[in-house]
Design brief:
6-stranded mixed beta sheet; globular; Rossmann fold; alpha/beta; 10 strands; two-stranded antiparallel sheet
Length: 213
């Protein structure tokens, strides 16, 4: 759920400006899942633009406080949200930890890196939500470690039905700075995409797993 429409519009504008979101309806990307997609989102590039990363950091920090007050710990989901999660934690003056997709196969075999004490309240920072599986895997690891998870805040979501269902099943609250609807509206209004490309992007969003097969 987008909390603030003005922030959603501005975030979409900035992501398009720095090509963090690439739109190629005529030459689709192939995701790790095997899905063909006319859009690819790489929010890690935000870290290379100081003014934009500061905007994202401050907006996320403000929303964390508005939604949950100050938690005990901020947790980033590896690898995409480690950088922005650490920036949010620093802005709020809070401890930071991050969660791997699975425990390390060597050393201390940690899945959670950093200090987390039993019962501490945690807000999870994520960069991108597609189906939500990797994000919820991180949340599950934190819960198993004794964390009291207040919610999750992400930069961007595609808004897939699968993600909505997955989050509803777990009861984990998700908020995002921006989403697919705001992105497409911004891209269309600014001439970033043409009308035929817009139609392709809207069609893809209806059934991404079967699109272009």
């Amino acid at each position: 759920m987008v909390l603030d429409k003005n922030t959603a519009k501005k975030t979409a504008e900035l992501l398009l400006q720095i090509n963090a979101i690439k739109l190629k309806p005529e030459n689709p990307f192939t995701w790790a899942s095997g899905w063909k997609s006319p859009i690819y989102c790489d929010n890690r590039i935000i870290l290379s633009y100081p003014s934009i990363r500061n905007f994202v950091r401050e907006e996320m920090a403000k929303q964390v406080e508005a939604l949950y007050g100050k938690p005990d710990v901020i947790a980033g989901v590896a690898t995409g949200a480690i950088g922005i999660g650490a920036l949010v934690a620093d802005y709020l003056g809070l401890p930071f930890i991050y969660v791997r997709p699975e425990p390390k196969s060597h050393g201390r075999q940690n899945q959670i890196e950093g200090l987390l004490e039993d019962g501490q309240s945690v807000v999870i920072i994520e960069d991108l939500i597609s189906t939500g599986k990797s994000s919820l895997n991180a949340a599950n690891a934190l819960s198993n470690a004794g964390a009291n998870i207040k919610g999750m805040l992400a930069i961007f979501t595609y808004g897939f039905d699968a993600a909505t269902i997955n989050f509803e099943k777990t009861g984990l609250e998700l908020h995002t700075l921006s989403d697919y609807a705001h992105l497409i509206k911004q891209a269309s209004e600014t001439g970033y995409i043409k009308e035929d490309q817009l139609n392709t992007l809207l069609e893809w969003r209806k059934d991404p797993s079967q699109w272009n097969k």
